[in-house]
Design a protein that fits this description.
The protein has helices at residues 11-14, 36-45, 85-92, 103-115, 178-183; strands spanning 23-26, 50-53, 73-78, 97-100, 119-122, 136-139, 142-148, 152-158, 161-163, 168-169, 185-192, 194-196, 215-218. It has 232 residues and is an alpha/beta fold. The strands form 3 sheets. It has a 7-stranded parallel sheet. A 3-stranded antiparallel sheet has the order 5-7-6. α3 (85-92) links the parallel β3 (73-78) and β4 (97-100). The N and C termini lie far apart (51 Å).
Length: 232
């Protein structure tokens, strides 16, 4: 990796510098558009006491769920956590801290962090446990709570296609949280299915500009279906 070229040759190089106790922001929604290779590398490294910010924690045995197996996650900041038996067990045993955040608020917390906005006001969660202990202000007769932005030491992101400069395109619903996550990491790693030369991507189709990307790697992906339904 040199100059504008963001490409690295291995996941070891991509995740270099990740240490115990850091915060990692992960793109994806369920098992759609998740950075499978980066997650597998974190598992391999054995990094622990991590705070993971993601819409959910994958499932048992796949996605972020594999990081629960060796208790690498100290805290999850998520919107939905209903697919992991191991997650449930660790939560009820007091081994895992969970901060539940409304989905739109979580997306905005990432976006604000990437934009350098320290906090914002939202009506979502006012009058519920989500708003407990948070500053409240009234605008035009409606109550709003203050939510602080989120940034991470690392952001791990899954894209469809990128050029070597790190300009990224996401495909369909795999876009989900990935563009916001990409802006909110001090070091942002993007793994993609295909890397092309600069100039081969239509500039109007680029979702994440390369200025946000620090390291880029081409991976292979299982793309597991979270809940497969077939006719009898």
């Amino acid at each position: 990796m040199s100059g504008f070229n963001k490409v690295v040759g291995s996941y070891e190089e991509a995740m270099a510098g990740l240490e115990d106790g850091m915060t990692v922001i992960a793109g994806g929604f369920g098992l759609c558009g998740i950075p499978e290779g980066c997650i597998a590398q974190i598992k391999k490294m054995g990094t622990k006491e991590l705070t993971i910010v993601s819409n959910n924690c994958g499932v048992d045995g796949f996605g972020l769920g594999i990081l629960l197996e060796d208790k690498q996650i100290k805290k999850m900041v998520s919107s939905y956590v209903g697919e992991n038996k191991l997650f449930e067990d660790q939560l009820l045993a007091g081994e895992l801290e969970v901060e539940l955040t409304p989905q739109g608020t979580l997306a905005e917390k990432m976006r604000a962090g990437g934009a350098g906005i320290p906090a914002f006001y939202t009506a979502t969660g006012y009058g519920t446990p989500v708003g407990d202990g948070k500053e409240v202000r009234e605008f035009d007769g409606r109550k709003y709570i203050m939510e602080e932005a989120i940034t991470g030491d690392f952001a791990i992101v899954k894209g469809w296609k990128a050029d070597t400069y790190g300009n990224v395109i996401y495909r369909h619903t795999a876009q989900n949280f990935n563009p916001m996550a990409a802006t909110a990491g001090k070091i942002t790693i993007v793994e993609v299915e295909e890397i092309v030369e600069p100039g081969e991507l239509d500039p109007t189709q680029i979702h994440t500009p390369g200025i946000y990307v620090d390291r880029l790697i081409q991976g292979t992906f299982e793309k597991r279906i979270e809940q497969r339904t077939v006719r009898a």
